[in-house]
Each structure stands twice: as C-alpha cells, then as structure tokens.
C-alpha cells in the first residue's frame, strides 16, 4: 500500500475514534501536514465548535478556514468565539482583518471598534485599524488611531514605524523622523528600520551628512544582503554625487540628473 493511502486510512480510523476537541485538533494538524485539507478543515471546525475548546483554538480554526476560502465557516467560528468570550480582542481583530481583505470595510470597522471596546489597551488592534483607515485615504482618522495605539502600548516598534511611514507618504518628513528614531531605539538590531530612517533623512530631508554616516556604518555589515544591499549601494553613490554637487563639482551635476534610474526603497 502506498504511504499516502496508508496515511489516509489511518486518518479515517482516527476520525471515527476522535472524541474530544483536543483529539480532533491533533488529528487536524496531522491531516494538514499530510495535505488532506478537506479532512483538516472538517476536524478543525469539529474541535472549534466544542464549548470546551480554547479561544486560541477557535480563532486558529477560523483563520485556517479563511485561507481555504471557506468564509462562511470562518465567520461562524469568529462569531462563536465572540459570543463565548466578549472580551477577547484577538477575535475581533482577526475577524476584522478577514472582512477587510474581502473589501467589507464598514463591517471590518465595526469589528475593530468592538475589539477596542473589549480591550482599550490592545495596541495591535489600534494599529490594524489605523492601517485600514490609511488604506481608505482617511488619514486624519488613521492618525488618531495610531496615537491612541501608542498611548496604549508605548513600546510597540511596529506602530511607531507604521505611523512614521504614513507621515512620510504625506510628505511630513520632520514629523516622521522622531517616530522612526524611537522605533530604532526600541528595536536597535532590526536593520530595516535604520534603512527606512536613512531613506527618510536623505531622500526626504536631504540631510546628506547624516545619511552618509549611516551608510558608512551599514555597508560593512554581513547581515544586509540582496535588494537591501543593492539599495544601500545605490544610495551611497547618490550621497557621493550629492556631496560633490554641494561642493560645486560640475561632473556631479551631470550624475545627479541620473537619479531617476534608481529606486528609493521604502
């Protein structure tokens, strides 16, 4: 018997004997690993609708059903978790994000707001809500949510970063700068934040000397590879040309005109 068929018959036997939600959950994980998606989905749902199942189990099952395109079951499980635990902000946030992906923004907004009523201190919900508002072009409302999120969790580097990038996109470079700097202080080992700060001070604020110092610090690092390294090298070249231009180098003026062939990154 081929292994895949043997596994299937073993799973069929397991399904007939799985009685508790934990047994069903473990079997669902096995089915998922083996590629039996339909069986996995059925088992996840069977485990999740058990009133004794944990909230994290129910939300994970809903997310899995969402990835499989079974939005009706995902909705059923999200709503069941909200009914059983009205104070679980993760259930509201996850459901809101699923609705957002479907373009159902008004319904998603209701879920975000209910999640914040359940837990006004949940920073990730503020951030996710703000990003949706930003996507809709509702920048003033997004800014309020970012600010409230930082009040709720002033140690959230991703929230500072997302808020800064929104301000940068609006051309509010001076306001974005301290937010990115705070992100770097919170997560000093994440090189992506330093490169985003470099992009801001050089391409946005034309702070050539500060940008040059960052480039000199980052270029020797071995952990910067691929497109990030290419972007860093391109930026270093542009900084050299900009410095020469400021010094009155005629050749640099010609080189600066070629900026359009380079990407500025995020």
UniProtKB/TrEMBL annotation:
Q: Which PANTHER family does the annotation name?
A: PROTEIN HIGH CHLOROPHYLL FLUORESCENT 107
Q: Which SUPFAM superfamilies match?
A: TPR-like
Molecular function (GO) terms for this protein are: mRNA binding; single-stranded RNA binding
Q: Which InterPro entries match?
A: HAT, Mbb1-like, TPR-like_helical_dom_sf, TPR_rpt
This chain belongs to the protein called Uncharacterized protein
Q: Which organism is it from?
A: marine sediment metagenome
Question: Which biological process terms from the Gene Ontology are attached to this UniProt entry?
Answer: mRNA processing; regulation of translation
One Pfam family it belongs to? TPR_19
């Amino acid at each position: 018997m081929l292994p895949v068929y043997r596994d299937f018959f073993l799973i069929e036997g397991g399904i007939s004997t799985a009685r508790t939600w934990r047994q069903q959950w473990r079997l669902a994980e096995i089915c998922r690993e083996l590629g039996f998606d339909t069986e996995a989905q059925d088992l996840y749902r069977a485990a999740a609708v058990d009133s004794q199942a944990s909230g994290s189990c129910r939300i994970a099952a809903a997310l899995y059903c969402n990835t499989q395109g079974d939005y009706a079951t995902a909705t059923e499980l999200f709503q069941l978790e909200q009914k059983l635990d009205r104070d679980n902000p993760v259930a509201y946030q996850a459901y809101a994000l699923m609705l957002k992906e479907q373009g159902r923004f008004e319904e998603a907004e209701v879920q975000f707001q209910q999640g914040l009523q359940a837990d006004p201190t949940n920073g990730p919900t503020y951030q996710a809500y703000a990003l949706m508002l930003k996507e809709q072009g509702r920048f003033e409302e997004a800014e309020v949510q970012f600010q409230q999120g930082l009040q709720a969790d002033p140690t959230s580097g991703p929230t500072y970063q997302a808020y800064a990038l929104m301000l940068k996109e609006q051309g509010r470079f001076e306001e974005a700068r301290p937010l990115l700097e705070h992100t770097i202080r919170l997560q000093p080992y994440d090189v992506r934040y330093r490169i985003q700060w470099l992009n801001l001070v050089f391409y946005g604020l034309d702070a050539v000397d500060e940008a040059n110092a960052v480039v000199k610090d980052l270029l020797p690092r071995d952990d910067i590879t691929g497109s990030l390294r290419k972007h860093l090298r391109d930026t270093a070249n542009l900084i050299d040309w900009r410095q020469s231009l400021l010094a009155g180098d005629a050749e640099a003026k010609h080189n600066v005109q070629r900026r359009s062939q380079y990407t500025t990154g995020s």
